[in-house]
Amino acid sequence: MTPDGTPADAHHQHLEHLAALHAVLSATNEAVLRCATERDLFREVCAAAMADGYFRIVSVSLRDAATGRLRSVAAAGVEPHLVDNMNMSVDGASVESGGTAGTAFRTGRPSVSNDLQNDPRIQRVSAWKETVARRRLGSGAAVPLVPRRGTIGVLMFYAERPGAFDDETVRLIERMARNIAFALDKFDEEAERRAAEEALRASERRHAILESIQDAYYEVDLAGNHMFCTTAFTRLLGYSRDEVLATNNRAFQTDAMARLVGATFKRVWRSGVACEREEWQYLHRDGRVLDVEGSVHLLRDAAGRPRGFHGILRDITQQRAVESALRESEARFRALTHLSSDWYWELDTRLHYCAMEGRRHETRAVQKVYLGRPVWDAELAVDLPGGWGPLRETLEAHQPFRDVPMFRSLPDGRPYFVSVSGEPMFGADGAFAGYRGVSHEITRMKLAESRAQHLATHDTLTGLPNRAHFGTLLGRALAFAAEGAAGCAVLFIDLDRFKFINDTLGHGAGDQLLQELAGRFRRVLPPGGVLARLAGDEFVVLLPTDDTASIALAAQAMLVQAARPVWIGGSECSVSASIGVARSPADGRDEQTLMKNADAAMYSAKDRGKNNAQFYSAEIQVRSIERLALETGLRQVLVRGELAVHYQAKLSCGSQGVVGVEALLRWTSPELGEVPPSRFIPLAEETGLIVAIGRWVLHEACRQSVEWQRQGLPAVCMAVNVSARQLDHADFIADLAAILRETGLEPRWLELELTESTVIRDPERALALLQAVKAMGVRLAIDDFGAGYSALGQLKHFPVDTIKIDQSFIRELATSAEDKAITQAIITIGRALGLTVVAEGVETAEQENFLRTNACDQMQGFHFSYPVDATAFAALIGGGMPPRIQRCAP
Hints:
Blueprint: H1 8-34, H2 38-49, E1 55-63, E2 70-77, H3 82-85, H4 100-107, E3 111-113, H5 120-123, H6 126-134, E4 139-145, E5 153-159, H7 167-212, E6 216-221, E7 226-229, H8 231-237, H9 241-245, H10 255-271, E8 275-283, E9 289-300, E10 306-315, H11 317-339, E11 343-347, E12 353-357, H12 360-370, E13 381-382, H13 388-396, E14 401-409, E15 415-426, E16 432-441, H14 443-457, H15 467-482, E17 488-496, H16 498-505, H17 507-523, E18 530-535, E19 538-543, H18 548-563, E20 566-568, E21 571-573, E22 576-584, H19 591-607, E23 612-615, H20 618-634, H21 637-640, E24 643-652, E25 658-669, E26 673-675, H22 677-687, H23 690-710, E27 717-721, H24 724-728, H25 732-743, E28 750-755, H26 756-760, H27 763-775, E29 779-785, E30 802-805, H28 807-811, H29 817-832, E31 836-840, H30 845-853, E32 858-860, H31 870-878
Parallel strand pairs: 22-23, 25-27, 27-28, 28-29, 29-30, 30-31, 31-32
Antiparallel strand pairs: 1-2, 1-5, 3-4, 4-5, 6-7, 6-10, 8-9, 9-10, 11-12, 11-16, 13-14, 14-15, 15-16, 17-19, 17-22, 18-19, 20-21, 24-25, 24-32, 25-26
Helix pairs in contact: 1-2, 1-7, 2-7, 16-17, 19-20, 23-25
């Protein structure tokens, strides 16, 4: 027995085990020095730990980042694969994470179980319980592997007998784990060192490559400050590298050129697309201006974020000087060419070519074609009425001729034009001896003339006949009809919603749409028909028939083509067409009458809901006269005092009290009666009258708001609609400031309502304008939100206070799941952006309940109040009305 009562044999075995563990520890230290990889280190440690047979299984398991479980990377002993089969976790939330391995990983301290057969943590997991029993595992221990980067796994030991892991054994395996962690840190340091060396070598190779190129290379940060440049760059500008790196790129440019270069950098930064072959001017140290050709590429960091720009500059100053000199030389050469002949030729007495001299490299080939042949049989046609006939008579009469245009087709099909001048030759006896003359090529001039003629008669965007040419063609058709030929028809086509798309997506998108529709209309054009573009989105068709069925069929084909979606820049654009038809002779016998009546029929098609065709009739004529009367009356409304402003309340969804009011325009005409806004406001925008009318409405609404406050009524925010035409007016900001000053209304009680298309058709201009409005203290709202092409994400770019959900989404809230989802999304994101969300067009209790449930800020609609005059509205907010406003008479 030993002094502590331990049997001598057991004590001796324990000492041998500790000695073996010390040997394992020594082997681990050797492995740390010898092994080059983690896998080799783990494998040797596991093998060494099994040397004295004390353990049944030794394993190194690492955490799998994807699953959160321990995965064995090295093991030794009896059936070491059992470690993976035990499916151990480290996340702390599952039963599988409660064993020694999971505990050691989470706590960062050793975890020991000296009686696996009765350990409740083991017994809770059936797979562990079965493995421990079948493989006669009596005890187990796990120590965490904790290098500097953090806990990565555990070193696990399993022994057959219980109680195998006393304190001294645990301390030894802890030292093993620390030695392994030390080795892992060394591996990490070595990997970092190699990576740094490789990065340094790559940087040195890159700089060597850049220095080897002749062109100047530069790198600047996002503000234009130089970060790196090659020797060629410093040589180009005449500065030292230190001088360059201490400055901004603008220091080497004129102010105008700096703006141009800055715009290029901004374009590359926004699009991510490099710019090549940009031509700039730089300033040399000695004051010379250098012409350079440059490129700009986006410079990104390791995470892919833009951190600057880089590119190459090439000095093209001398090249440009040479090109300029060459242009001057070419100009002198062309002048000399015009003063002399390109070709000299002679005809014999039979009028056959007998001599041909000209450009040396072409002379023989031309002589082969022309010599010995009659002049009229030499592959040249006379480009004059009558062709060769009149000129042949001149030649046979031995008369001179000058500047006769002739042409032929080259082998590749291109046209070739020459101008020919000649004079007869006579002998000493006065006998005719032939002709001699000169010719020079005029192909470019003839093609330019043809092109100019085409441009004068055709639309440059679509290539279709223009208004003037169409008028000529229509005049001819009407003349033929007057002589007894068949009648004809004019189809006046106007695109619906084109202005909205043009304003929303830009004029470039509008041009693409017009080109696409022109191609579609041309493809379905009946035989003998003519398609032309008059202006803007107006097309016109001339058909050589007055048959109703044939015309209707052609019109329907045009409507179908217009209604098909068009994809432009990733956006689906949908338009339709309104077509008016006028026939000759029934609807007019002259061009002006026929076009006027087709135009009137087109407006009738728009009045009938658009996307249809209407034939001209007496009824349409009446409506056309009514429209003229409407426009005439609209031009007098301000002078005659026929306009009025009504007011519709906005309610808080929370308090149900009035928190705002919208000013709505009304027109009562002595001749036309009550004219709905839907009839006269589009006409006012079309004619531009909306600018003056809108200014009057804004002034009246502000004046009335101040008047209510003077009467002691509570102040509420006054909302006034502003059209795109008003915002485009140069005096809009000045007019707004003047109105606030004249009426005395505090800016915070005024809110301008704009449509989506107004702010996104020209975002940069709109942003500057809206910022000017906000600087005055006036609130801004987006009206009819969700009905256009913008998105909520765009709102963060504009200083908007309020968005009004378009009533098309509110109308079907009770039945449409899609409208509910869209409305909820707008409310949620609008509130997240700190915006006031207003639902317009609320007409039912179901709509009100939905909006209140989903935390909409404000509501507006007939469910609460119709638009009323100023006196009635004053009664609403100051007459002791209950929280819910009763319906008011319209």
